[in-house]
Each structure stands twice: as C-alpha cells, then as structure tokens.
Amino acid sequence: MKARAFSYFRATTIDQALEAHARARDDARFIAGGQSLVPALSLRLQAPRLLIDITHIEELRGVRREGGTLRIGALTRHCEMLSEPLIAEFAPLLHAAAPFVAHPAIRNRGTFGGSVALADPASEFPAMTLALDAEIEIAGPSGRRRVKADDFFIDLFETALQPGELITAIHVPLFKADQRFAFDELARRRGDYALVGCGIMATCTGDRVDDIRISFFSVGNTPTRVRGAENTLLGARLDAERIAAAQGVLEGDLAPPDSDEVPPAMRLHLARVLLGRLLGRLGEGA
Amino acid sequence: MSTPLTSLDRPNSYIGRSVPRPNAKRLLAGRGRYVSDLKLPRMLHAAFLRSPHAHAKIGSINTEPARGVEGVHLVATGEDLAKLCTPWTGTLDHFKGMTSAPQWPLPLDRVVWAGQAVVAVVAESRAIAEDALELIEIDYEDLPVVVDIDSARVAGGPLVNPGSANNTCFRSQLDSGTVDDAFAHAAHVVEEEFTFGRHTAVTLEPRAIVADYDPAAGALIVHHATQTPYQFQDLYSRHYGIPEARVRVIATDIGGSFGMKLHVYHEDMAVVGLSILLGRPVKFVADRMESFVSDIHARDHRVRARMALDAKGEILAMDVLDLTAIGAFSTYPRTSVVEGNQVIRLIGAPYRFRNYRATLEVIFQNKVQTSQYRAVGHPIACAVTERLMDMAASKIGLDPFAIRAQNVIPDDAYPQTSPTGYRFEALSHQACLKRLHEIMDYDGLRAEQADLRKRGIYRGIGIAAFVEITNPSPAFYGVGGARISSQDGAILSLTPSGEVRCMISVTEQGQGTEAIISQIVADQLGVAQEHVKVITGDTEVTPHGGATWACRGAGIGGETALQATRALKRNILEIAALILQEQPSALDIIDGEVVDAATRKPRLPIAEIARIAYFRSDTLPPGTQAQLTVSHHFAPQGYPFAFTNGIQGCVLDVDVETGLVKLLKHFIVEDCGRVINPMLVDEQLRGGIVQGLGAALFEECRYSDTGQLMNGSLADYLVPMPMEMPDIVIAHVETPTADTVLGAKGVGEAGTAAASACVLNAVNDALAPFDATINSMPITPAKVLKALKRL
Ligand SMILES: Cc1cc2nc3c(=O)[nH]c(=O)nc-3n(C[C@H](O)[C@H](O)[C@H](O)COP(=O)(O)OP(=O)(O)OC[C@H]3O[C@@H](n4cnc5c(N)ncnc54)[C@H](O)[C@@H]3O)c2cc1C
Q: Which chain A residues have a beta carbon less than 8 Å from that of B658?
C-alpha cells in the first residue's frame, strides 16, 4: 500500500513545530524516526494532512547531566542508547534494554521520544521510564511542563500528551552505587516485540531491598508497574522464598489481554518465570 | 604443500567445482533488474479492492465515485474481464474424480476467501489507484464460512461451493500387501495424530507483473516474476485467445520463488486483461499484506498414522489417513492435490516394509488456495514417518540410529519399488546414516545430554531420514493433461570471437542455474567458464521447456546443456579437421584451443575456426556448411523420477519453563548424485533447511473462526531470522543417476524435506524425561508449555 498524499514541513525550532501543528488544526503529526509513523501512513491507518519533521530541532537533541538527573533529548536514537557513555554510566537500564529494541536498521532511526510518545505497550523504553521513575518534559501550545512517568501512560496508545504537544526530553535520576538493575524479555525471535518483558531498578542496603520498581511490558494496555510484587520485596532479602512470594502476587498486579496466540494464563506464567529469573539475578548481584 | 591431482585439475574441469555465480556480483551491487523495477512508457498501475469476508454473495458494486478520481483510467469488475478471458479449472485427469469450481480473474457473484480481489482500479500511480479503491462500495451478503477441516467434513454443513454434494475436492487410496494382517500380528504398534500448520513462501520480492498489450500488433508482452515463463505464455495465449507466437513472457531477475511463483493468480490474469482493455502497459506488484492473503499457502495437513513392528523393531506395516484443506479452489494449472498425493506416497519411503495403506482426503474451505511450495509434501511425510520411528525406537528400547539402520533399504539392494509405487534407481541410506553418526559425534552428544539433564538443561537430539522427488518426467503433469513440459531445450552458438552463448529453457531465481549451466558448457566444450554466456527466461529467445520447478534444473536442464555442448563440439571439430586435414577423432578442445587429442599439442584456437567459418567460408572446402549454432532438446527417460536421499540431525535446548526452543546445531548428509557446484549445492541445502526450521518453530498462517487471517504481516507472521538459526554442517554422498551422462539429480528441496522432522524429534527427545510429547508444528512455546502441563 501507499500512503495518502500529505504536506511536509521541516521545523528547526520547537515554536515553529508547535505553530505548524496549530495551523493545521491538529490534522498533523510530528515525525521523528518515522519507524512507527511511516508504516502507519503506508497502511493508511493514519492519514494526516501535514507531517512536521522535528528531527532538525537542536533543542531536542543531546544527552547531558542536569543536577541529579540525566536529560535525554527526545531525538536520542535507539542506537545512541548503546553508544552514548553517559547513558551506559548513568542510565544503564536503558543501555541494557536497547539491544532488544527491534534491529540495527530501525535503531539507527527510531527515537526515545518517539517511542515514549507512541507508548506502545509492547515497547521496551516506555516501560523502562516507569522503572527509572523518569520525568517526561513536554512543550505545548500552553507552555512547558513535566509529567512523571507514573502519570504519563493512561491507556492503549493514550498518554498525558495533549494534541499538538511535543516531548522535548526525558529526565532520568542518575544511577547510584547502591542501586541494582536487571532487564530481560522473552521473545520467539530476537528483536521482536516480546511475549513478555521486564525491567527492574532496586536500591539496596547490603542485600536488603529499600526501594524497588518493577515494570513489565507486553502484558496489557500500558507498560505496567507491579506494585503488589514490589511491596512484597520491600525491606526483604532477595532469597528464593521471597522471590516465590513476589511471583505469587503477580496475578493481582497483571491482567493480560486475550490474544489469539498467547492466552492470558500463558502470559502470566511467562511473567512469573521472567520475574523469578530477574530477581534471582538481582539477588546474585549482591 | 601439494595435494594429489584430481580430475578437477584438468583444464576447464568445472563439474564438481565451487565457482562463484556469475550473476551474484551484479545482484549484490544493486544492478539486478526485477519486474518491480520496470518502468515502461505510458505504464499505469493496478490496485485491487479485496473482500473483507471469507464467504459472501456480491450484491451491487458502486464504482462511480472511484471512476471520477483524477488519474484513474479504468475500474473493472469480474464481469468486465470475463468478457475477455475464458475461465480456468484447477483439475488434472490423472487425479481421478477430483473437482474444482471454474475461476475467473475477478469473481462474478461470490467471494470465497477474505482477501480475494474483487474490483481492479488502474491509475497513473499506485497511490491514486488506492485513493480510488477507498471510494468503491460493495454490498455483500454474508454466507456461512467453512474454516477448519472438521467443520468442512460435517455432512449437511455449509458448502464452499453451493450446489456441490460436499466439500471434498479429491480422495485417493493406496493399499498394498496385507496391512490388517500385519497389524494383527505385530509385537508393537505406535500411533499418533499430527497437525501441520499452513504456511507460505514469503519471497523477498513479492509477486510482480507488467502486462503490455499492443492492439496494433495484436501482441502481448508480459514481464513476469515467474519460474515458468513458457507455462504462462501458453496460458495467456489460450485464455485470452492470442496466438501463442504473439505472446512473449519475460522473466528477468526474480527475488525468490520457492514454487510460489509458478501458479496462476487471479490478479495476474486480471492485469493482462486490464492491459488489453486499455492498450497500455499495466503494472501490479503485490505488497506484503496482499501477498499474505493472495500468494498460495501450503501444508495444512492432519495426518493420523500408525506403524506396526515386530519384536526386534522391523517395520511390518503402515496405515495412514491424511486430511488436507486447500482453500476454495484447486490451484491452476498444477492443482492443489499434489502435496497430499506426495505425502501419502512418500511416507515410509526410506524403509523396506511392504504392507502399506493410505487414504488422502483433500477438502475445500474458505481460505486462500494452497499449492506447491518448496518440498511439496516431503516435510509432512518425513515428520510422520520419522516421529513414528522414534516412538517405535523408544517403545522397543532401540537407539534412533539403530532402528533406522535396521530398516532402511540397504545400499546394495537397488533397484527397488516402494509399496506406494515409486521406483528407486539407487539410494544411499546406509552410507548417509553412517556419515551422519560421525559428523554429529552422536555418542559425544548423548553423553553431554545426560550430563546437562542433571543440571536441569533439557537438550534434545533428533534425526530424520528422507527421500526427495527430483527430475520429474511427464508422469508428473503431462499425463494429467497439463501443458507443462518436462523436457528442456538449449540453443548453443559459437560466437565469431570464439566465445559461447547458451540460451536455455531452465530459469534462474537466485539459485545459480545460470552458473551451473555455464560450468557444464565450459567443461564439456573445453573453454574457460567466463567465455560462456547463459541466457534464460524469455519465451521469444529461449527454447520451450519446463523451466524451474520440482528440482529439475540441474538434472534435466544440465543434461540438455551437456548434450547440446557435445553436439556443438562435434561440429567445431569437424571444421577444425577440415582445416587441419585431420580426422575429427584425433582432435580435442582444451582451454579454447583445438589440440591434438593424443599429445594435447595446441593446433588452432577455436576463435580462428569461428573467424574462418563466419568471415572466410570461401577458404573452406567446397560443400562445407559450418554449423556453429546447435539446438538440442532433452526429455528424461528411464525412471519417471530421479529420487534422492539423505538424513538430517539437529541439536537443541528446550527451556521447560518458557517453552522456548533454542536451536544449537543442524547437520545434513545428502546424496543428490553428481554435485556440479558444491558451493551452490550447500547454499541450496542451507536455504532449504532454514525454511524447514521456519516451519518447525515459527511459520503459520493463523485464521480466526470467521476465516480472517490473523497474522498477515511480517510483524506477526514469523519467518526464520539469522539470530535463531544454528550453524549447519553439511556432508555429501554421491550416487549419480545412470539415466543421464551428467548423473545429476535435484537438491533444492532436500533441506526443507527433513529439517522440521528433525526438530520435532529433537524437541520430543528433550521432553522425554517429562512424559510430554509434541505432535504439531510449528512447535510454539504455548504447545510446549501445554505438553508440559504448565498451562
Ligand atoms: C520492524 C520494526 C520492529 C520494531 N521493533 C520494536 C521493538 O522491538 N521494540 C520497540 O520498542 N519498538 C520497536 N519498533 C518501533 C520503533 O522503536 C519506533 O522507532 C519507535 O516506537 C517510535 O520512534 P520514532 O522516532 O520512529 O517515531 P515516529 O515513527 O516518527 O513517531 C511515532 C509517533 O510518535 C509521535 N512522536 C514522535 N516523536 C515525538 C515527540 N518528540 N513528541 C511527541 N510526539 C512524537 C509521532 O507523531 C507519531 O505519532 C519497531 C519498528 C519496526 C519498523
């Protein structure tokens, strides 16, 4: 299939992009890496009148430290998650997740901002913003604001972004010496959207868990924190018994949808297996 | 370092040598010319509106708004094209009693699968044509949908073809020996029901066609990404009433085919009609979504089979029921029953038992057609046979190698006729089994497996023997009335500069046909391979022949080239003898030079012979007419098929918590007779194995209970990818056929034939400690977890 005809505008500032969107009376789409939008256009699932290219907006680029956080520009590409030393050092969970996002050709173009804005529930990065307790920096017609990842993902492909709003950056708390992380996913082929995936950030004193954020993807309409399992682990040691307890409460945290190939019970089973393996790894990292 | 000289060290010895494909560099450099790339002056683009219903009556069609779109040249329905094109029926006479409904380019009153093309729009661009499609309105009236095999067989249930008695397309039975008696007296009986998912070819380049009708000349040129240009020349000529000599089909570079591109597709037939209606070239390239719902699918079998054995593990009998669902029509012109027919005839093929009974039932349903795709029927026959062998082995307490060694037809016992009527000239199961055991380090693998189990790692080891059908004679299609040739033709010329041009009817889809033909010509004539140019795939240029399917290119096309080259060599030496005043028998050709046959002393370059013959014929003795162009046709005689054989092995781990299977290593020992180019043979085996591994673990066209394809995109339909593929170790045994001078048999389907059976056996081997078995492919994590009772 071929896309319907559309107009194209290349913005070089945030204001230009926002104005163009408003002028098109919101019958417009920002395009970043295009790795999700272009297929949607080609399949005629979306047919906006105007595409606003945001990839030439300098302000959306770059990775730098800002106080206690790492500011990761919205245009940071998936491949840069692998190559950028600041990310490897201060946001190692993103570095660990990146090789699982699609394939090199797609990682060369796809952007962090685009992935978070799209909020595909099977995507790695949106779920990792939850595990990282990240903040999404947004620019829109009514000014700038920041939204906690916990408040950002609302429903299937629905986020706190209002029409015409742009993600400018994502702020991630700097990784600290007393923290541990783990990431993995189960997929039939490397690079596919996972059957189930999970990222964990934990803060520990010795081998006692002081704080833990466990975020799953491919388990429902949004990336999902499993607070029941988190609570089970708070203040505890990551031993076999505690891990089994966390696996045991997962059922209350997750309600996987039915799909023709992966029944809910199977997804839940896989989530338990994956959680057990990741917590085991975290425990060994003590 | 010096190694002993072999026959390959003779000058121009190319048969048996790994020389690169002459066209590989061109294709890698992006210089390929695919139909998808073609742009002709005044060319228009077709797009099709497809049925969203699996079965429905077509009511009114409103095309008016679409006709009004700027840039649209034509909107055509089934009725418009039926005025030009006669219908076709996918039956063959030798499949007694088979039925199928007539087909038109676009349907007249009923749609029979979701995705069937209903209305065509031709416009200045594909995008404009798609804009217009959005404006077409069709009133459909839903009809009951026949989806799965069981509901299709319910008496009095919904019918795919109203008016017919049932949904049966074809039924066939084989019965030889005394099957009931053998089962009654068997020490052991093993039995299982197997299911095989539908899958499809997923070629890198989708189907592509440009039809270019010239009303002034009354002539049709079709640029068609197909394996079989001659077949399509014949079909376009007969169904559109254009004399054969005025239909030209050109098959240039093709991005993969695997059997998928040798069938008649409704859109392709329609595009020819659209070009006739418009008097302009019309292009259609199926996009990936269209490919999934309109390319042929394959497999989709359910087989119940049992095997009787004596106390020592000798097979006594097999009894098989194969049910297969093929979609709403049997495919034209090769039908959709060949797969089932080959399943029931290939089951048990490596083994020497005599009592065999099989029933085949081919059933219509509301899905896209199935038909011949790489290794037609083989993977099913192989998986059924080889799984039963393993079940028997474990029941009797034999090792999988031991039970096979005991039952294969011995290498010195040929010729043999199988209980299903196949005649085997010479196979090498024993040699292959022995070699596989060595290259796998089987005993080492078993020891390692036992160790790993103690640590909770479930490794599986599987093997599967197979027989492959290659080099078909007219017994395959010709006897059934299909105008599909089993012979090939070649025209060979010595050019004025002393080089060679070979125009041959076998075609190239990336497998290296042109490479091996040039090897054979160079070898047989005695010239350097780079001085041989091979031309394929243009019905106006190359002689009529079968082209490429059923692993016939090397065996039949290769022999054609060999015979043609020998004829040309005779003619060249005749002229040389006149010039040199020698007997032709005293001369030979080496490296482009006529030499003294006994001393190999150079006498005259063949370029000089060409110069004299073409430009100074006055210097030749009076009455001499040099024939430096020869033509030759070759049809296989002797055995109706050249059967090949081999055995595969694989090693994998099953993650018993997640159900995921990790392939670790794959092995094949294969006997395709004379190996012309080891590198290309190995490429064929690797590619074939990868497709078989796809069938084993990943590929399946999944349908909803309303007949909608659920996973018709590359995001959801899983093809095998490099990260999941294991290393593949290859070894050869060579048993040339005596039916030809060349001795080559086919190899293109051998890899696919047994790879999935190997994985099935290995997964079951891994699961053995759990009393869990798998009998269905693809082997998904869900199936493994279910077998392990973890779901
Ligand atoms: C074959 C294939 C496999 C893939 N596999 C995976 C995978 O395994 N895991 C995974 O996570 N992803 C996968 N993807 C998706 C890929 O990661 C996308 O690149 C990503 O989801 C979107 O990023 P993008 O920059 O390409 O966004 P685009 O496609 O340009 O845009 C996507 C959407 O986000 C909006 N948008 C983009 N940037 C912004 C912004 N800064 N502010 C507001 N809105 C914005 C656009 O308007 C659009 O609606 C795959 C893609 C392909 C083609």
A: 186, 270, 273
